[in-house]
Write a structure and sequence with these properties.
two-stranded antiparallel sheet, 5 helices
Length: 116
């Protein structure tokens, strides 16, 4: 698809034109946003892409949806790209919580421990 009007139009010789922005503009915007937010760590457009995918996962989006949004051809690429959040790890039920524990009054004592 070749749009006639771009959402983020670029410039030619300092004037707005109907051309796409360059990758350098995106990198510069990330750098300026990091400086404005006082972020000292390295920040790139890929960091924003990864953060968006992580937030989608935490919000409950399934991996197939995230795969399509990221444009990955194989699900394995999405699995490597994403990490499981702490929220998802805490949501996994503990199998020990499903065990039924009998009351001590209902448990039969062994023969040796029976009271006489």
């Amino acid at each position: 698809m070749q749009p006639q009007t771009f959402l983020f139009p670029g410039t030619v010789k300092g004037f707005r034109a109907d051309v796409p922005i360059t990758p350098n503009v995106v990198w510069l915007a990330c750098r300026q946003a990091a400086q404005a937010a006082a972020i000292r760590k390295h920040l790139s457009p890929h960091t924003l892409r990864h953060s968006c995918a992580s937030h989608l996962l935490e919000a409950g989006a399934d991996l197939r949806t995230i795969q399509v949004l990221l444009g990955h051809s194989r699900l394995e690429h999405t699995l490597v790209y994403l990490h499981l959040s702490h929220k998802h790890l805490q949501a996994v039920p503990n199998p020990l919580d499903t065990l039924e524990v009998a009351s001590l009054d209902d448990v039969q004592r062994s023969r040796r421990l029976k009271r006489k």
